Amino acid sequence: MPRTTVLESPGCPPLRALTTDILGLVKVVEAHARPAGAAKVVETWGAPDASCAIVAASLADRATDPVLAVARMNGVVELLNPLNGDTLAAVKAVGPAPNDGGAEGDPLTALHLFTRQASDSILGTFLACTEQGKASIRSITKENAASGSHIEPSATWDVCGGANVQFCSVDHGENYVMFGGKGIEVSLWDITSCSKTWSAKSPRTNSLGIFTRPWFTAGTFLCKDDHRKIVACTNSHQVRLYDTALQRRPAISVEFKESPIKAVAADPNGHDVYIGTGTGDLASFDMRTGLDSYLRIWDTNTRQLLSAVFLKQHLTTVVLDSHFSVEEPGEMKSKQLESSVETETEVRKEKKKKSKAITEDETEAQIRKEKKSRTIEEEEQAGLVDHSDINDEVYARKEKKKKKSRGIEGGKERDSDGEICSPKRRKSGERSKCLKKRSKKQLVA
């Protein structure tokens, strides 16, 4: 069972509506701001007569000189003043003559009063269609309305042959008209040339191979600016969306409950339609669903739209993964990046530590060498050099420097002394004999 809720009526805003019925009466219903929401019948026009039942009505809702057209069962089209109910004109729209009784066999079923006016002398122009598909356009001038003479149609054509037309709908620009009924498919006609521009194709048979005979009860144009998208409702409780620029079969077909759909109206937003069934059910449909390639996620409790994703192509089915992790892919990626960054920083820190340890060892060794060289220089200057701690290479360099500073004779003696006194490692604290001899010879020189 569907969930139902009972709400208190807040009332309706200020409005004025005109209704027609099977007794030929026109009733005016008005709702005023005070008291709020109190809609009631304020006027009734006409006398009750079942033979003059109103089968169709159309309003030219103009700011100046509005006109209401009503089609009666006897084939007469009346033009009324929607402000006070006065009859402006009455024209026999069916049959060769006004007094011909053969019109009862082919009554009027559809009517549209054009909003635009060709000239000021014309009271109104309307399009009417009979049950057998005879469509005609007539213009009523003010002179003809006063005289009450018969008016010949300016254009006529046959919508279908021998079928039952039940409705017609004109687009916002009043250039195209749509017809539909029992036993005929929906068709689109050009009003200027009176030619058919598009016709629907019957849907395929069902799984049992049964073909459903077409039976359209109402239709409308979906958008004001685009006459190519039309919505048609059937007696088999279906709402169909046709795109005349793409294909002949319906792009969307939705079933609503079990009763025939009797009325349909388009919303000014261009994508919603409102339907009414024979049992009094009212519903609205968003005709973009399934055509705009969006995945929409709804909350079943609050019936609120949570998110919508555009997927480009026409969708066929959707499945849900029940084992999906709560963490989003972005969070997983961020965590992976953070872990990789942490490992990289740790590696860099270890490398820095190693490089620091190596540099510290090198600096310590260099400091030791510098200290050792300083101590050696200080000892040489003081004359207390201990060659036990000096390596052979350093001693050889010192000897070469001393050879250059001395004379030739001293150089020979030093060479001989160098041969006698070989630089052998001695115990710490002992001075070499060669240094003692060398010092004496230096004194002699």
The shape is rod-shaped
Question: In angstroms, what is the radius of gyration?
Answer: 54 Å
Helical region count? 5
**How many beta-strand segments?**
24
Estimated structural class: alpha+beta
- Return the CATH architecture of the domain at 15-262: 7 Propeller
**Percent in helix:** 10-25%
What does the largest sheet look like? 4 strands, antiparallel
N-to-C order of helices and strands: EEEEEEEEEEHEEEEEEEEEEEEEEHHHH
Proportion of residues in extended strands: 25-35%
Low confidence ranges: 96-103, 384-390, 411-429
Region (Disordered): 327-445
Protein name: Transducin/WD40 repeat-like superfamily protein
Biased composition (Basic residues): 423-445
Biased composition (Basic and acidic residues): 327-336, 365-376, 386-397, 406-417
